[in-house]
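Incident log, support desk, overnight shift.

02:14 A customer reports that sequence design results differ from what the structure should imply. Their input is reproduced verbatim below. On-call engineer (initials T.W.) acknowledged and began investigating.
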């Protein structure tokens, strides 16, 4: 059985996600030819050195010419501009997709630039790390992770099947939902958690009574787990919040209410309220481990080397 999904696959944006798709497609032979384009000259040069593309043209029009599948892997705020640059160069029948962490705003920004003879199917792989750029991607990033597709009612069934198969062959599980529902689900599972992490790390940095070096020194108390999330790419995350305003503000409203209730519970010694919540949240962690979306190792499996090993 052949693994090939298409002849020509084109990736726009060679960062963590674009670089991981290109590596994954190349390694598994899912396309005969992989073309990668990035707006930045230095990134294009780096992709040529790393060798995860068959071609890295300097012009975006050349990159998409003849492509069967084009995947936009640029920050959410750049998707509209990229669509306007490629719209008139696409092959009839091509599948255009993206990987943006927000769907509604991307659909709005991209759709008007595409002709009726191409198939636009928005997508979002729910997989990533806190690193970005062409060196950060790796084959296997999407293994046993979910990729959410948000097709339209009139999306061509064959095109949808092809894109689904591509993600499945890269190791992902595929689910479909509306763009609107996607944005609400991701607001609670990803966007607001990132905002909370950015906020707590910012608060710690601004606290006058505790020094920066103390915050760093004693970070194993819990703080460091937030710093991983709060070190994610600033451009990407600025774009996410500005493009998923409604859902983020909705979830933040609920979060703030619940936080105030906790504040009150602490002030009034409502011990049961605190204990009950902390018991309920434990079972959520357990469920995430049970479905294979995280490992069960204590402390995220961090190595606990002896002090003398660090001092060597
Ligand atoms: P990244 O590592 O920062 O890569 C994005 C790349 O796109 C950069 O090389 C950037 O170049 C380039 N770029 C920016 N504007 C461009 C344009 N107009 N035309 C062509 N290239 C352009 O970002 P990423 O983490 O791969 O994220 C890509 C997309 O996937 C985003 O929409 C993000 O929301 C989504 N996503 C990310 C994750 C994650 O965990 N990181 C997970 C799922 C989905 P410059 O650096 O020179 O600007």
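02:41 Re-run completed on a clean worker. Output:
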């Amino acid at each position: 059985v052949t693994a090939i999904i298409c002849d020509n696959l084109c990736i726009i944006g060679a960062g963590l996600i674009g670089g991981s798709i290109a590596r994954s497609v190349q390694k598994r032979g899912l396309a005969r030819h992989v073309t990668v384009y990035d707006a930045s000259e230095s990134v294009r040069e780096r992709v040529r050195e790393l060798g995860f593309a068959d071609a890295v043209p300097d012009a975006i029009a050349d990159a998409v010419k003849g492509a069967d599948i084009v995947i936009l892997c640029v920050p959410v705020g750049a998707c509209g501009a990229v669509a306007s640059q490629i719209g008139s160069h696409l092959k009839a029948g091509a599948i255009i997709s993206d990987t943006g962490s927000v769907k509604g705003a991307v659909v709005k920004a991209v759709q008007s630039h595409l002709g009726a003879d191409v198939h636009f199917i928005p997508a979002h792989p729910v997989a990533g790390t806190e690193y970005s750029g062409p060196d950060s991607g790796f084959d296997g990033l999407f293994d046993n992770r979910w990729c959410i597709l948000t097709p339209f009612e009139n999306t061509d069934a064959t095109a949808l099947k092809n894109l689904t198969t591509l993600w499945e062959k890269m190791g992902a599980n595929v689910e479909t939902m509306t763009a609107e529902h996607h944005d609400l689900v991701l607001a609670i599972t990803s966007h607001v958690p990132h905002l909370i992490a950015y906020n707590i790390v910012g608060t710690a940095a601004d606290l006058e009574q505790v020094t920066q070096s103390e915050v760093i020194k004693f970070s194993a108390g819990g703080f460091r787990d937030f710093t991983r999330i709060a070190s994610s790419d600033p451009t990407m995350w600025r774009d996410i919040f500005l493009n998923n305003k409604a859902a983020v503000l909705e979830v933040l409203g609920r979060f703030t209410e619940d936080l105030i209730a906790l504040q009150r519970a602490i002030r009034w010694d409502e011990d049961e309220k605190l204990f009950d919540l902390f018991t309920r949240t434990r079972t959520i962690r357990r469920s995430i481990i049970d479905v294979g979306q995280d490992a069960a190792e204590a402390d995220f499996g961090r190595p606990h080397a002896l002090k003398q090993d660090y001092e060597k």
